[in-house]
C-alpha cells in the first residue's frame, strides 16, 4: 500500500474516507479549489488547511484559518501532545494515527503500510541526449546516460590522453548545462506559484463581488467572511481597549454595540454584523460592509473604512469605554479647565447605555462621579466644592430637570455671556448624592417613539458639574465638566410622516447637531465666527468651545445590517468632525500623556454669578442659521436645513405669541386693582366723583388694551401662517 488515508468524522458523527495518492489535498468549507469539502461545520474556514503528500510522507499546513488547525487534541479539551499548526513554512509532519481537529470536524491520518519505494530513474528524453551529444564525443557517457548511470566515470589509459579530451569541451560543461536546466525548472515553478497566487487573489475579488470563479452566488455573510480572511489583523498586532491620543484637544471615538436579541430575531440582514473593527497601535479603523444589489438583482458589497482616534468593538464594556474616552477629562477640570463629553448616534445605538448605564451596569456618569470624589480627597483639592445642574433641550426650549421641569430662559448679557435664567444648582457632598441627582433628572427626561426606535431620547440631556473654590463673596468657578447625551439622530424620512410635534423634534435635533459640528470647526480653526446662536444646544455650551477646553465625541453605532444607513450617517458625521479637528501624522500609538502639549495658562477662574444689575436680553439666531446654510453643499440643503429653517421661524413666532400673551395677562393683573377702585367711585354716592377723569381713564385703558390685543393678534396671524407653511412643506415630501 503506497497511498495514505484520511478518515473524516463530521460534527454529526458521520464518517467518510479520502485516499491521498500524491500531490496537495486542500481542505475547507468552500467548494472552490478544495479536494475535501466540509459543508456542515461553521468553524471551518473557506480555505482552512492543506496536506502535501510526497514519497510516503505527509506535511500539514494551516492556511490562515480563523479557528486554527490542531493535531492530537482530545474532545474534552485536555491535551496529550497537542500541536497547533502554524500557517506557512514547511508544515507539520504527520504520523500514522495523528488526529487533526478543524472546527468540530475530526480527520484521522493513516500513512502507507510500508515505505514507498523510490521511483525508478526516468530515461532522459531525446532533448537531453542531443544536448549531451553536442557537448561530448565520448560514446560511453552517452551510453551511461541512456542507461541511467549518472555517476559513471570513463576509464582512461594511464599515460595517454583521450582523443575526446583533446577535441571535446571541458568536463564541467555537462554539469553546468544540467544546472541551467534545474534553474529553468525552478523558474517555471516560481512562475506557477505566482500564477496560483494571482488566481487566488482574483477569486477573492470575485467573491467580494458576490460570485465565485464557477459562477456560484455568495450571500453577504460569505462576502464578509472573505473580507475577514483577507484583512484580519494578526493577534499580536491587535490594540483594542487601550487609551489612544488621550491628550488631544478634540477626540473622536467610535463604539460598536453587540447584536441584540431583537436584531437576531429579525433574521436576514438584521441579524448580520456589518461592522468590522480593525485596531492596531498605529491606526483605529471601523469598516462598514454595505450590502447592495445591482439592477439585475445580483448581490455585491461595498466596504467603507473610517479612521478615528479610538475604536471600541462590542467586547469592550462601559469601564473600558470610560477609560478610553471621558476619564482624562476629570483631572483636566480639576486643573481649572473645561471639558465636554457627548455621545452621538442613531436611536438604539447605545448612547444612553454608554452615558447612564442600566440596572447593575453603570455608565460614564457614575464612573465620573466615582473619580471626581477620589480627586477631591487629594490635599490640593480639599478646599474645592462640587456642584451640579441637569437640564434638557426639547423642541428648542430648555427645561430644568432638577426643579420639576421648569422652563428656563436662555439670555445674553451685554458682554455676550450666556446664562440660563432660573437654573438650579445643587452642591453634592459625595458620589451617591451626585448619582441620585442624575437619576432624578433622568426619570423625567423626555422620551418618545419613532419609526426607527420604540423608545428614543427625544431631547438633549446636559448634566453639568462645577468645581468651585472659595471667593471673597461667593464661590468662584474653577473648572466645569459637561456630559451630554444627545437626542437620537434620525433621517428626514423617519419623521416625515409623523405628526407636527415629531417633525419639529427631528428638525430641531438635526439643526442642533449641525450647529455643534460647525462650532467644533470654529474651535479647531481658532478664527472666524462661532455660530453658537444657531441652536439652544450650542448656545448653552458656548463656554465649552473657548479657552483651554477639551472635547470628546463618542459616536455609537449599531452592527445590524438593517441599520447600515444609520451607521453610515453616524460615521460620516464623526468623520467630518475628525476632519475638522485635524489629522495626526502617521506613527506609533502615543498613549496617555506621552503626547501632552503644555496647557494654556488661562483658567476658567471666573465668577458666573451675575449681579442683580446685569441686563439680560434675547438674541437673534438668523445670522448663525445663515452660516449653517453656507456650510452645507446645495444638494444637502433640502435634507438637513430646509425644514429646520421653517421650524426655527415657527418656534420664533410661537415664542413671540407666548411672550405677548404673558405680558397681556400680567398687565391685566396689575390693572385689576385700579379697575376695582375706579368702579367703586363710579357706583358710589361720593359727590367728589370726577366724571371727566373716569372717562379719560377708561379711554387710556381701552387704547392700551387695544394696542396689546392688536399686537397679539398680529403675532397669532404670523404664527398661523408659519404653521400652515410647515404643514404644506411636510406633506409635499
UniProtKB/TrEMBL annotation:
Keywords, comma-separated and alphabetical: ATP-binding, Cytoplasm, Cytoskeleton, Microtubule, Motor protein, Nucleotide-binding
Entry's localization field: Cytoplasm, Cytoskeleton
Domain FHA intervals: 25-76
A single MF term (Gene Ontology): microtubule motor activity
Compositionally biased intervals (Low complexity): 161-173
Residues of the Kinesin motor domain: 249-580
Annotated Pfam families: FHA, Kinesin
Cross-referenced PROSITE patterns: FHA_DOMAIN, KINESIN_MOTOR_1, KINESIN_MOTOR_2
Biased composition (Basic residues): 150-160
GO CC terms, sorted: microtubule
Annotated stretches, region: Disordered: 148-178, 584-623
BP terms from Gene Ontology: microtubule depolymerization; microtubule-based movement
Name listed for the protein in its UniProt record: Kinesin-like protein
Source organism of this protein record: Amorphochlora amoebiformis
